[in-house]
């Protein structure tokens, strides 16, 4: 009987295991994760849920894996991969042979250089255990400093304000969300945080970060010193490539895979946050995404190809973030765009469309209350997938439905 092994029991690994069964695979499936919990959703960890009971949102209850004959091993890490003998060495001392292997090892939070990240007052956020530790410090009247104005830091800032915590966000670059969204959206996000009482400081480097008897001291390059109850370091994520690297797989900002999610080793696939892949839609440019939907979709695609399918990555990158009552959504990749058009939807909701020099729609970034931008972003995604060159005036005119552009 064939044995398919999945390393990494996160969003992607779990979805792949389920997809293998849904697609009729009858062999053995082992899903191995180093965290103690069965696979759970990470997005709620930084959002409003942290203010609630903080029950993990499981992809599926533990007993469902057994029912589907998925051997879920938690609290065990895979320490070595031998691609020649097709064997894995596990932290519990066992050795496991595979016929096909999926690496879905995800990413970890990036540490602040030279600072221990496990002290009482200096923390990061990636796992449910991290969220529990953070939650304990998020009490009314406490003061937290968020190092880094990226998505996770800003979501946590919003959650903390809703819990009555004082928040200072320190961003080294000249604005928040520099990597993810255009200036106009970043400005709207920063304005909302300031309105809600967050002290947002941009263009300020951190000189040092220390834990002093359970309190954190953040020394800023402008001379200011923040004494806070907790410093949350939110400066991005690093792909977990260690296992693949030691096994001699090709690494290129993540485990390098082709359009079918195949690594450089036979019968070894990689998917989700840990891998970089060529995106045909953007001229074959190699990208690595850290996005929930991508992890899900690639889990399914890897499963299909492990079963002998021939599916290639075609999805348009998509990401969302919730902060206060606002939802931000991004479809596509805006690098290389030369024209930026704004479409106002009313009620403080708007979308920025990014087009290349030939007028091709590359990306759309929107923000608004609730799901105000969801429909138009979905239509933009379809336009991007179709390689459309929509009339710029129509894009900017809320009176003209995007659906009509799609038909054109
Ligand atoms: C706080 C937070 C909020 C987020 N919010 C959003 C959002 O709003 N929108 C969005 O699109 N995305 C969001 N994301 C990103 C999204 O959660 C990730 O893109 C997604 O979880 C990636 O799934 P993955 O399975 O590839 O990796 P992961 O979820 O990182 O799972 C990988 C798993 O593999 C395990 N592992 C690694 N190495 C080994 C090994 N050698 N042996 C055994 N196990 C191993 C890891 O411990 C981990 O459990 C958020 C992420 C975080 C942390």
Secondary structure blueprint with pairings:
Elements lengths: L2 E5 L3 H12 L5 E6 L28 H6 L2 E5 L3 E5 L4 E4 L4 E3 L2 E4 L3 E3 L12 E2 L4 H10 L5 E5 L3 H12 L3 E6 L11 H13 L3 E4 L3 E7 L2 E6 L4 E4 L1 E4 L3 E3 L2 H5 L8 E2 L11 E3 L4 E5 L5 E3 L4 H15 L11 E6 L2 E7 L6 E8 L2 E7 L5 E9 L4 H12 L6 H5 L5 H6 L1
Parallel strand pairs: 1-2, 1-7, 2-3, 7-19, 9-16, 10-11, 10-16, 11-12, 18-20
Antiparallel strand pairs: 4-5, 5-6, 8-17, 13-14, 14-15, 20-21, 22-23, 23-26, 24-25, 25-26
Helix pairs in contact: 1-7
The protein binds flavin-adenine dinucleotide.
The site of flavin-adenine dinucleotide has 37 residues, from helix 1, strand 2, helix 7 and strand 22.
Account of the 3D structure:
With 408 residues, the protein is of the alpha/beta class. It folds into three domains: 3-108 and 238-306, FAD/NAD(P)-binding domain (3-Layer(bba) Sandwich); 111-233, FAD/NAD(P)-binding domain, CATH 3.50.50.60; 325-407, FAD/NAD-linked reductase, C-terminal dimerisation domain (Enolase-like, domain 1, 2-Layer Sandwich). It is 24% helix and 31% strand. The protein contains ten helices and 26 strands. It has helices at 11-22, 62-67, 128-137, 151-162, 183-195, 242-246, 292-306, 374-385, 392-396, 402-407, and strands at 3-7, 28-33, 70-74, 78-82, 87-90, 95-97, 100-103, 107-109, 122-123, 143-147, 166-171, 199-202, 206-212, 215-220, 225-228, 230-233, 237-239, 255-256, 268-270, 275-279, 285-287, 318-323, 326-332, 339-346, 349-355, 361-369. Strands 3-2-1-7-19 form a five-stranded parallel beta sheet. A five-stranded parallel beta sheet has the order 9-16-10-11-12, covered by helices on one side. A five-stranded antiparallel beta sheet has the order 22-23-26-25-24, sandwiched between helices. Helix 1 (11-22) runs parallel beside helix 7. It is globular and about 60 Å long. The N and C termini lie far apart (51 Å). The model has no long low-confidence stretch (mean pLDDT 95). Flavin-adenine dinucleotide binds at residues 7-13, 32-35, 42-43, 45-46, 77-78, 104-107, 125-126, 152, 240, 243, 272-274, 290-293, 295, 319-321. The site of flavin-adenine dinucleotide has 37 residues, from helix 1, strand 2, helix 7 and strand 22.
